[in-house]
Amino acid sequence: MALSNIQTADPTALGCLLNETIFGIAEARPDGGVDHETESPHFVFYGENKRRYLFLVEDRHHEWMSAPALDAFSRTLAALKLSVGDIALLNLARLPEVPKKTQLTAFFQPRAVVLLGAPPAVFGLDPGVSGQVVDSDGLPVLRTAAFDELLTNDEKKRQFWTAIKQLLV
């Protein structure tokens, strides 16, 4: 039986089959206009976000990050007693436009955010702040280099490891 011929009214089955947003809801403003900033976008990300740790990258050449970087990232998570299921990894370069902080926090509901080479402006951070955990409206955020760069720079790698342990452990 082809998937296009499946017919069901079972809400559980529909929930499993339909995992994309069908209707985006925009709130009406008092002046009668529509506020598109409150629309909830759907993000395709790596991981399952079970512990709500959000990692943002900006890699134009790979779906998430390079194979060596993704392998090292997985080993880093394991060293922190985390798994891919605990986190969400979002590549901003794969999106049609950079989402607003409010959209990211509404969708992912993160406990902490790590910007792995992603632009700090996404979370309203100063471009000069790097390598340390800072507060962004009550949300701890670590801005650091892209994981590929961490693999080749021992000083940045040490700085990242110290900060990530402080943030996630």
How would you briefly describe this protein structure?
By secondary structure, the chain is an alpha/beta fold. The protein has helices at residues 11-17, 67-79, 101-108, 147-152, 154-168; strands spanning 27-28, 34-35, 46-47, 53-57, 87-91, 112-116, 133-136, 139-144.
Which SSEs are present, and which pair or pack?
Blueprint: H1 11-17, E1 27-28, E2 34-35, E3 46-47, E4 53-57, H2 67-79, E5 87-91, H3 101-108, E6 112-116, E7 133-136, E8 139-144, H4 147-152, H5 154-168
Parallel strand pairs: 4-5, 4-6, 6-8
Antiparallel strand pairs: 1-2, 3-5, 7-8
Considering the protein shown, what is the CATH homologous superfamily of the largest domain? Uracil-DNA glycosylase-like domain
Poorly predicted segments: none
The amount of helix comes to 25-40%
| H-E order | HEEEEHEHEEEHH
Strand order of the largest sheet: 3-5-4-6-8-7
Question: Helix/strand/pairing class, anyone?
Answer: alpha/beta
Number of domains: 2
Total DSSP helices: 5
Q: Kindly provide the name of the CATH class of the largest domain.
A: Alpha Beta
Number of strands: 8
Largest sheet: 6 strands, mixed
CA-CA gap between termini: 48 Å
Averaging pLDDT over every residue, what do you get?
A: 81
Rg calc: 18 Å
Percentage of residues in strands: 15-25%
* CATH topology grouping of the largest domain: Uracil-DNA Glycosylase, subunit E
CATH architecture of the largest domain: 3-Layer(aba) Sandwich
Tertiary shape: globular
